[in-house]
């Protein structure tokens, strides 16, 4: 799939959440070039001759908050159990909540709730969005043999 370079709020990252044992679909926007520059500048903090061990996590959570636009709401599965998304406890019962203002389960401070108890998800989202660029694998050919299969003289 090609990379769309138009600023968009319609990106989705589906993660396997090991704590809940479920999948959560996060919605996010693409960061600007300026945000990418600031993110990388803030990723490491050097004070004297020491490097902060927590700075990367703090930066990822902050920038995860900047790019997240919401999440897909929990749905009731075939067995009647909630699947995906996030839930809150209300009157001793687990209840889905939503980031979409159009949903009847919308909770205005959804991002604050996620940051308070699930900052690892914001950390991972930022890592995915800001740090996931990788070099494509390069297939190396064995050029030590000539076309007939004889080993080439590499000299010394």
Verbal overview:
The chain is built from four helices and nine strands. It is α+β, with helices and mostly antiparallel strands. Strands 1-2-5 form a three-stranded antiparallel beta sheet. Strands 3-4 form a two-stranded antiparallel ribbon. α2 crosses α4 and α3 packs across α4. The protein is globular, with a radius of gyration of 23 Å.
Distance between the termini: 46 Å
Query: Based on CA inertia axes, which overall geometry fits?
Result: globular
Number of domains: 1
Q: Which sequence of SSEs, written as H and E, runs from N to C?
A: EEHEEHEEEEEHH
Query: What is the spatial order of strands in the main beta sheet?
Result: 1-2-5
Question: Into which percentage range does the β-strand content fall?
Answer: 15-25%
Strand-pairing-aware structural class:
alpha+beta
**pLDDT averaged residue by residue:** 84
- Low-pLDDT segments, ≥5 res: none
Number of helices: 4
Number of strands: 9
Which sheet architecture does the biggest sheet show? 3 strands, antiparallel
Helix content: 25-40%
Rg for CA atoms? 23 Å
Topology:
Layout: E1 11-17, E2 22-28, H1 33-42, E3 46-47, E4 50-51, H2 55-67, E5 68-71, E6 75-76, E7 82-83, E8 86-90, E9 93-97, H3 110-117, H4 119-131
Antiparallel strand pairs: 1-2, 2-5, 3-4, 6-7, 8-9
What's this entry about, in short?
With 156 residues, the chain is α+β, with helices and mostly antiparallel strands. It has four helices and nine strands.
